Amino acid sequence: xxxxxxxxxxxxxxxxxxxxxxxxxxxxxxxxxxxxxxxxxxxxxxxxxxxxxxxxxxxxxxxxxxxxxxxxxxxxxxxxxxxxxxxxxxxxxxxxxxxxxxxxxxxxxxxxxxxxxxxxxxxxxxxxxxxxxxxxxxxxxxxxxxxxxxxxxxxxxxxxxxxxxxxxxxxxxxxxxxxxxxxxxxxxxxxxxxxxxxxxxxxxxxxxxxxxxxxxxxxxxxxxxxxxxxxxxxxxxxxxxxxxxxxxxxxxxxxxxxxxxxxxxxxxxxxxxxxxxxxxxxxxxxxxxxxxxxxxxxxxxxxxxxxxxxxxxxxxxxxxxxxxxxxxxxxxxxxxxxxxxxxxxxxxxxxxxxxxxxxxxxxxxxxxxxxxxxxxxxxxxxxxxxxxxxxxxxxxxxxxxxxxxxxxxxxxxxxxxxxxxxxxxxxxxxxxxxxxxxxxxxxxxxxxxxxxxxxxxxxxxxxxxxxxxxxxxxxxxxxxxxxxxxxxxxxxxxxxxxxxxxxxxxxxxxxxxxxxxxxxxxxxxxxxxxxxxxxxxxxxxxxxxxxxxxxxxxxxxxxxxxxxxxxxxxxxxxxxxxxxxxxxxxxxxxxxxxxxxxxxxxxxxxxxxxxxxxxxxxxxxxxxxxxxxxxxxxxxxxxxxxxxxxxxxxxxxxxxxxxxxxxxxxxxxxxxxxxxxxxxxxxxxxxxxxxxxxxxxxxxxxxxxxxxxxxxxxxxxxxxxxxxxxxxxxxxxxxxxxxxxxxxxxxxxxxxxxxxxxxxxxxxxxxxxxxxxxxxx
Length: 777
Hints:
The chain is α/β, with parallel strands linked by helices. The protein has 4 domains: 19-101, Alpha-Beta Plaits (2-Layer Sandwich), CATH 3.30.70.80; 105-356 and 507-631, 3-Layer(aba) Sandwich (Rossmann fold), CATH 3.40.50; 358-500, Glucose Oxidase, domain 1, CATH 3.50.30; 636-776, Immunoglobulin-like. The chain has 16 helices and 38 strands. The protein is globular and about 75 Å long. The two termini are 35 Å apart. 59% of the residues are buried. Residues 1-22, 116-132 and 747-751 have low confidence and may be disordered.
């Protein structure tokens, strides 16, 4: 679900704390890992003791504590003054203090059938369609950090599921409209977290959200059903669009719900949500303690991301990965501008968004006889073959409307006298897409045609508008506007809309999907992969309308939305399938399998394209578009340990120390030497760079691989050795990759460019591919 993700500072009061703390803020005090097995009570007392060292009394210290992180990482969240936080950060036993005043937000069933376009795979809805061992994710537990869940959805039924796994230690936390009976053998646990949210905003407004794991928004229900929803036939969005069978990628997996996102108080509380990192870190810590195998987090921040030691999601994911938990995060919706991707830690699997092979065609017939193809999922239709006047919003704006927004149909910008009974052409840009339709309806317009500005090209997200309407590409809106400007009495009518399958080309990278390079550490390529995120159908909260706009009283059980929020759970489900098939694999091995088996080709065998018609590359999609079936048998994997990540942090970003028990060496290995499945060399100036990698055999016992290289333009890439032989499973082999400018190549010709290539290991059965990106100085 596209949206702006950002940090804001807030001053707040907290009624349970003495008057002297009214200007305090929520800080996370991160202490690294736990020193051996200790009772939770002892850990809590340690945290109280640290607070007492800066607070005036034991009562004040205890009252200021919001969360004590006791499972996977050591730390706590508390109300502190800036001076108190500074004192704590200066202690040798404190790794960092993280001010939790930042707001994080959600990045928001044919997609699974589409993911099987390679080699005739027809879907992932049943065990029989997967290689032996995956079992549709049976008994794997996936933790969803999001806005909660609508438990009554058919996607979360538990018919035919066995008992809850004995290793599960979580709870079903009751609250508003949610009790123990809301959980079952599918939703095996549910919790909610809002202490940091309420410390910032005051008490939760019960009219905008449930004080419970119940989903007020729809986003959490949508992502949870995409990961692990049951097979539900006869599903469709409002208006009958996208009719068919809905299913998550791992329909037999178990769901653990951690509600961390809440409405932002203001004029649109149902539209904008926020998620505080102190609340999220508490959820991640509990999720590891509860026994989840995979975490799916469709949440992130925009702007320049904080250093890893100051990033709550990164810290929680690091300690989760140490326990073998795979953490999958959305990459953000700030594209197509470069250097916008978020969730940048190498122990996180970061996901971009791309299309599937389905459209919702809605022809527009202009008065001169030309037919323009739009797309829509609005259930409302104009009378068949009835012609209406068509007007450009910029020609129908209220006098005094700023010139730069007259064409965008923002609230109260249209003149009813100029648009009543007409089709109104609006442009995307500022404001919500569905909000533009609401403005056309308010002014008395008959329908909306929503056009793309240049940055979005041919990519057309669809919406269930509150009136008849459709959306068109940049080229098509230009055609419509030229017709309007050349005709004395321009007219049009909107033809019947319908769902169309097997659209080509597909996949195409979504323009909204955030792009690389990685602004924290360019030597780690992000995003890692791409997956379906454009116009995805999944379950929805019945407390939220399809547009989430005030005044839209429609109720739906399934809804179509777009964003990297939607692509993230596709990769999370793939990780669940791998965890079921290979329960002994590390989180790094699972990430590697997904990345090295991804494809850079579309369904027709051509290169994956961007929505603006250009050829996409690693900065757009990372290693490529996921292929779940291939990932189950990758042949080789690039593994990494907790210590490897700590060494990486020492070498990256100015030498961050993520754990006090692990002092950074004087000369840590280069960041690009982390054993990562992709390769990015930053600051290349023509001199020789040698990179080290190690692969582990997870395929056949007697395997012989040879390497093939696609060199970046003007760059020489030599892999040594060129052949690797394995005699047993689990055997490791090391190799080097030497990168240098080609002989005679002028250095100035490789400057200031991202040069892309790849290297691939093959044994006749497996294809283990890694992108190479040379970031020239």
